[in-house]
Every structure is written in C-alpha cells, then in structure tokens.
Design a protein that fits this description.
A hairpin with a 2-residue loop joins strand 3 and strand 4. Helix 1 runs antiparallel to helix 2. The chain has 8 helices and 17 strands. Helices cover about 25% and strands about 25% of the residues. Its EC number is 1.14.-.-. GO terms for molecular function: oxidoreductase activity, acting on paired donors, with incorporation or reduction of molecular oxygen. Keywords: Oxidoreductase, tRNA processing.
Length: about 325
C-alpha cells in the first residue's frame, strides 16, 4: 500500500525532532489518544507517541511551529504539566507517519509494582557524569539492547547484551558481582529506561543508584567532544538511525530485514542487500523471507520514484 507524501518538507534547517517522556498517573489515556493523534496530524507532525496509565513516551518531528504547538498543547493537559523534551534536527522528515499507541507500559520492563514516581535513582547532569563513571567505586551499566550498544557506548560500561528491556531484571538478579562496588551508574538513550531501571535496582536492595539525566542524547548535546567519554554513535529510533556529538546525524543505515544498524563498511559486505539481508541476519532468514523482503524493497523504490511513501515499510 502507498500513500502520497502531501506534507511539504521544511527547507533550510530541516525538521525539529523532539524526544519526550513523562511519568504521571494517566487514567484517561485511552480518551486522549484520538485528541493527540489529531493534534499532531493538523500540525504536520509525525512520529510515535505511547500512552499508558503511567504516562507518555515517544519522539516526534515536524516544522518548528508545528512541534511548538503540539508540545504547548500537551503541556496544557494537567497530567502533562512539567513535561520536558530534548531537541535535535533532521534534514529530512525522519518518520513515515504519525502513530499514537496505547500500551500497558510506556517503557516495557514487565515487572509489577515498579513506579518511578515513588522511588528512582539520583539524577546526574551531563557535566557531572564523567566524574561519576571514572570513580573506581562505580559500576557503569548500559541499560540498552545489544543492537544499540553495538555502535556506541561509554568507556568502561558493562553491557548486559539484552535483546529486549524485559531481559534486564533477570540479568541484574543473575549478576551478584553488581554488589561488589557501592555505586551503580546507569544510562540509556533519552533517560526513560533508566527511570524504570533505577527504580527496579532500588527495589532489589541497591542503595547508591544514579542515572544520566536526559540520557546519552543530552550528554552528546552538552559535553564537548574533546571532553567526552562516549565512543561511537548513539542509536535513535527514527530514519536517522544514529547521531554523534552535537546530535549530528551519523552514517549508519538500518537493515530493514532485522532492524540492526549498519556501518558503511557493513553495507559493502557480500551478505548485504538493501531491504533484504545483512551480515547480522543473512543466516536467520529463509529463501522465502528474502524473496518477500526483496519484493517489498522493490515496491519501496517504485513508490519513491513516484514521490510517494511505501506504508508497508
């Protein structure tokens, strides 16, 4: 299925991208869904927002005025008073459509009773993060998943090698060595996973638990590259795929077969075929799968030539 891409692209500085989350009791989240969907569509804003009884989470992009209107309208909702967001820019619209989805959790951990509004770790500003993670009394934990950590991480951080955030609690419970040092420092892309992760760690008996305020994105925005302890790029959940220091878009592309970020070198690998396979998934897909992906890629290319967006992407 295709649909015409009727929204004009912003020239010059491109699109404003806003990443946001807010934990709050939200009993009427189902009622808010159509209101927020319409608000975004009327302001040429695209992206994904998740609504649950615990709040809102997501990333949206659009013209500056449209994003400003949407954020202002969201903050006028009493439950979203105090909503914060992080900004970056994209030369092209990084989302295909606007989706407001209803979820059980705005970030899925799957552990009952974990409420960041009741107990959470200590926030650490980006300017103070280096001192904490270089403290020999600190264990640094990357709470993201394996495909994210593969392209960038803080020096010396422990990588749990999880494939989903649901695996994180079991990883913690199975790693008794985490108790060997008094301080636990945790980080994620924008901060939301650490809200749940630090709340969980405190429920598990860890006392000195810290997390990077604003996540990696805020660190890359505020900390000069020559002072940075970040190596690589940061995976983002939109068509930019990755960002670097200063939140400049990185050079990764996404394998649309397995959703793994790829370096320019990996796209030169014999196993790489755009939209069909890459070195990470070539052995995991059947011939029938690859033929189906190949047809999907063909339709995407044809739609682009017609100035349309292939909505099955």
């Amino acid at each position: 299925m295709t649909t015409e891409d009727t929204k004009p692209e912003v020239t010059g500085s491109g699109f404003l991208v806003a990443a946001l989350y807010h934990f709050t009791p939200l009993a009427r989240y189902r009622d808010l869904q159509p209101q927020i969907q319409t608000l975004c569509e009327e302001n040429a804003v695209r992206g994904t927002l998740l609504l649950a009884s615990e709040g809102i989470n997501g990333t949206i992009a659009g013209p500056d005025a449209g994003i400003s209107t949407v954020l202002g309208s969201l903050r006028s909702i009493p439950e979203f008073n105090g909503l914060e967001h992080k900004e970056s820019r994209a030369a092209k619209m990084p989302f295909l459509r606007m989706k407001v989805r209803l979820k059980k959790e705005i970030v899925t951990m799957g552990v009952e009773g974990i409420d960041p509004l009741e107990s959470v770790g200590t926030y650490v500003d980006p300017k103070d993060w280096n001192a904490l993670i270089t403290d020999p009394d600190t264990i640094v934990i990357d709470t993201r998943n394996e495909y994210e950590t593969a392209i960038g991480t803080f020096r010396g951080a422990v990588d749990p090698h999880t494939t989903t955030f649901r695996e994180f609690p079991d990883w913690v419970r199975n790693n008794t060595g985490l108790h060997n040092k008094p301080k636990i420092a945790m980080y994620c892309t924008g901060g939301i996973r650490c809200e749940k992760a630090t709340a969980f760690m405190k429920a598990e008996g860890f006392e000195d638990v810290f997390h990077l305020k604003g996540g990696i994105l805020k660190y890359l925005e505020e900390v000069p590259e020559d002072e940075s302890l970040w190596d690589g790029s940061c995976f983002v959940f939109d068509e930019r795929v990755s960002v670097n220091h200063g939140l400049e878009p990185g050079d990764h592309v996404l394998c649309h077969a397995c959703r793994h970020p790829l370096t320019p070198q990996e796209t030169e690998h014999p196993a790489y075929e755009a939209g069909v396979s890459c070195p990470h998934c070539i052995g995991e897909r059947s011939r029938e799968d690859r033929e189906r992906f190949r047809e999907r890629q063909k339709q995407m290319v044809l739609a682009k030539k017609r100035g349309q967006v292939h909505m099955g992407r």
